[in-house]
Amino acid sequence: xxxxxxxxxxxxxxxxxxxxxxxxxxxxxxxxxxxxxxxxxxxxxxxxxxxxxxxxxxxxxxxxxxxxxxxxxxxxxxxxxxxxxxxxxxxxxxxxxxxxxxxxxxxxxxxxxxxxxxxxxxxxxxxxxxxxxxxxxxxxxxxxxxxxxxxxxxxxxxxxxxxxxxxxxxxxxxxxxxxxxxxxxxxxxxxxxxxxxxxxxxxxxxxxxxxxxxxxxxxxxxxxxxxxxxxxxxxxxxxxxxxxxxxxxxxxxxxxxxxxxxxxxxxxxxxxxxxxxxxxxxxxxxxxxxxxxxxxxxxxxxxxxxxxxxxxxxxxxxxxxxxxxxxxxxxxxxxxxxxxxxxxxxxxxxxxxxxxxxxxxxxxxxxxxxxxxxxxxxxxxxx
Length: 383
Ligand SMILES: [Mn+2]
Prior knowledge:
Radius of gyration: 24 Å
CATH class of the largest domain: Alpha Beta
CATH architecture of the largest domain: 4-Layer Sandwich
Number of strands: 19
Distance between the termini: 65 Å
Structural class: alpha/beta
Order of helices and strands: EEEHEHEHHEEEHEEEEEEEEEHHEHEHHH
Helix content: 25-40%
Bound molecules: manganese (II) ion
Number of helices: 11
CATH superfamily of the largest domain: Metallo-dependent phosphatases
Largest sheet: 6 strands, mixed
Strand order of the largest sheet: 6-5-4-1-15-16
CATH topology of the largest domain: Purple Acid Phosphatase, chain A, domain 2
């Protein structure tokens, strides 16, 4: 049984105001090429199909094209919802589509159910678990209280009564962790309340393969066969050094598994660039083929610069973020970004100061600070 494992497509996502649709269409083409060349039995997509519960028209159209493209290659498609998807919307027409070997599980219906595919060694059960919260796993008989994500997942697993002497694959979109294994997290993941959503990965080690979604960097969780495929594109600058890929798993007899990763090449890469404006705008730099990449530019100039963003964009059209690093800012401005917890404690004035620093690369002058204070006071925001 050979299958491609992907996750976290986030179709329709915008990053810093830039639509990712073209880039998504580009990598989906590569994935279909891999389906053609590798001839897997199935493509497994472990959640976060769309970026939003109500995706835009273009996003729905792109997913329709992607599904149709895969379906034309004579492959089964198995997918579950992620925390970004609307369970009910994703579930649309799922009974009809299963006749086309497209198995969508958007809604958790109280019990984990498998889709069984067969190969020359017999059956492989793919257990498709849509994203669950403690509240989505209610015990109908009421004899069990669900206390947290770990418990909810345990209850879902129990409901399945899995025979682990057979070959089993789990497809799930949850935050699985293991003691001693630090997860690689990315800023583009939705991060609910400080790790309360974590589920111990020990409980899924008995599956022959766990095809996971949720973390955007490709990684294993303490074992080769328990893996996050990661998103097919970089969706935040925290991922700029990651290599994006899809994962190809081949499960022969029980216990005989090989896993490889197949690289994905983005239409435009996302990267960080640091230096003085004059150097970055030089003819030599401007002639580089990768100047249309999505860029986070860190300017190191000491002197005041007028309109740096537009000047940069005249050469690098896809500058997404701009920061300054010089003796005025003193420290790397990107490292000064307040954490979400800190933002809650900042006053409107402090928030505005932060915003001003991010935008201009300098702290406000006395005069500017006075104007900001006055405006916040008259608007009734401050004090
Ligand atoms: Mn995601």
